[in-house]
Write the structure tokens for this entry.
Amino acid sequence: MRGVILASASQRRSEILASCGIVHVAVPSEIEEIPGGKRPISEVVEINAVRKAEAAQKARKGSGDVIIGADTLVMCGDAVIGKPTGEEEVRAMLRTFSGRAIFVYTGICVIDTSSGREAAGVDKSEIIARRLSEGDADKYLPLLGPYDKAGGFSVEGAGAMLFDDIRGSYFNILGLSLVRLKELFERAGLDILDFIDKDKL
């Protein structure tokens, strides 16, 4: 079976692939991500995903590996929300999110290093945050770390109590839409089912 390289440091993305029986090696990309700015957020996450995958492609030249790059950003209103740097930033994010719609965008890029074929795309999901009091925010704060996720939250664990509704791919919110990933494998001339080790399911 050909190798799969996940060009990402995200443990959740790695866990999503592993849960499907896709044996892979996670190789965090060293590229500097472009931030949300004047470009549409969907364009930003796709560019970052492509740059991550292409950096891994150069490092794995001639390996025959299939490379997956991904990048996630969160938008609330007109603000693009990245990974928080600490507790106070998470507290501010919770205030911003309270009672509002949050949009999660994940760009994905798949490269077949054997053929050189490449496919990239974006998935978008919407989640509605519960209205939080200051007391609620204080209680949630220690339950949401470590702060290594875009938006500083998770829809898993205690974070699941923060949201009233999810529209779109749940896995996209976790960082890797499996439906979109399968489509991109197909566009790159591959069948993702061929990369599943049934003994790992």
Observations:
- The two ends are 16 Å apart (CA to CA).
- Strands lie at 4-7, 25-26, 66-76, 79-81, 101-112, 118-129, 163-167.
- Residues 41-59 form the longest helix (19 residues).
- The longest strand covers residues 101-112.
